[in-house]
Write a structure and sequence with these properties.
The chain is α+β, with helices and mostly antiparallel strands. The chain is built from 4 helices and 4 strands, in the order H-E-E-H-H-H-E-E. It has one domain: MOFRL domain (glycerate kinase, domain 1), CATH 3.40.1480.
């Protein structure tokens, strides 16, 4: 979801997509954050949002940018968490 938001690159839009149990599937990553700088950071790092989406590789994309959310297991699986902040 965060990758799809990043594609728009809208100014003033920040978002987070995380899993409350602290892991996404088998990965130790809970989710990722995006902001107006996401596309420029990706360009600087020579990673493609489109390629990441095509390859279903959000983990690799956000790892490269340093925008993963890593909390470790919380042992509380309440729900998936999504928030969008427009400023």
């Amino acid at each position: 979801m965060a990758l799809a938001f990043a594609l728009k690159g809208a100014p003033g839009i920040h978002a987070i997509a995380c899993d409350t149990d602290g892991v996404d599937g088998a990965a130790e990553v809970a989710g990722a954050v995006i902001g107006p700088q996401t596309l420029s950071k990706a360009e600087k790092a020579a990673v493609s949002v489109d390629r990441a989406l095509d390859n279903n590789d959000a983990h690799g994309f956000f790892e490269t940018l340093g925008d993963q959310v890593v909390t470790g297991p919380t042992l509380t699986n309440v729900n998936d968490f999504r928030a969008i902040w427009i400023c």
